[in-house]
Amino acid sequence: MFPLATGLMLVLHFEGISGDLPHVYSGAGSTVLLPCGTSPSSTTTACSGTAWYFKTDGHYTTVVSLGKVVKRLPQASRMSLDPNCSLVIRSIAVEDAGLYMCGQDGYHMTFMSVLKISEHPVPWEDEEVQLQCSLWRPADLGPCLLTSIRWVNETGAVLHGESEGHQADIQGDCSSFLNVTRQALHSTNYTCQLLDEHNYVTTEVVYTPDTDLWAGSEAWPVLYGWSRVVGLILLVGVTVTVSRHGGQ
């Protein structure tokens, strides 16, 4: 088995040359295979000498020991080893972003970053929704390129600036924002793409609206209108009640 102490020394040694290490990019919810670098030796039985370590936020965690996933970990049910002792992670989450190291006859280190789309309401804009696409990545890698994340629609057209139904390219730190109308959100699928330094797509994630949650975009103005009417009726009722008590 590859000793943890030796592994941590190697991590510290290689942190200064993180740009030379392999990097895997994944969309949230997908499945990733992280190679161990070498197949188990003939003297090793079914990865019994394999260990995997995970580093995030400066903390190191053993996720595989003696060829077995550590069961007490929250992500254990999503992890397994393939016959080559590569680490398989299913239903990728942002918490999985970090540095992974496989210890076997030698060592193999891989960075993994996760791309995810989240949805937020737009203050004072009941007919708009903001989609945020963020790249969750190890802190060792430094800042993102501001042009590394872009939005495309279902036809593959890149969304720039403000157009009918959307407003794109509001950039943040490792994030890009897309404001869309609720009507456009129901009629179009939006994809967030991560580009490398040569503008090639390294990974992408598609946002598909929850039809149960947003069913019937036409119903939103009606529901919003009725909520205002009900609120006004309640306000008038409270005002009348207070006035009567004041008169008494």
Question: Which characteristics define this entry?
Answer:
Immunoglobulin-like; elongated; 10-stranded mixed β-sheet; alpha+beta; 3-stranded antiparallel β-sheet; 248 residues; protein tyrosine kinase binding
Compact description:
With 248 residues, the chain is of the alpha+beta class.
Would you spell out the secondary-structure blueprint of this structure?
Elements (H helix, E strand, L loop, with lengths): L3 H11 L8 E5 L4 E3 L16 E6 L2 E7 L2 E2 L9 E3 L5 E3 L8 E6 L3 E16 L2 E12 L12 E4 L9 E2 L2 E7 L2 E7 H6 L2 E6 L5 E7 L11 H29 L1
Parallel strand pairs: 1-9
Antiparallel strand pairs: 2-7, 3-4, 3-8, 4-5, 6-7, 8-9, 9-10, 10-14, 11-15, 12-13, 13-14, 15-16
Protein name: Ig-like domain-containing protein
Pfam family, one: V-set
Keywords: Signal
* SSE order: HEEEEEEEEEEEEEEHEEH
Number of helices: 3
Query: How many structural domains can be distinguished in the coordinates?
Result: 2
Q: How many angstroms separate the termini? A: 86 Å
Q: Which class do the helix and strand fractions yield?
A: alpha+beta
User: What is the CATH architecture assignment of the largest domain?
Assistant: Sandwich
Could you name the CATH class of the largest domain?
A: Mainly Beta
> CATH superfamily of the largest domain, please?
Immunoglobulins
Shape: elongated
CATH topology of the largest domain: Immunoglobulin-like
| Overall number of strands | 16
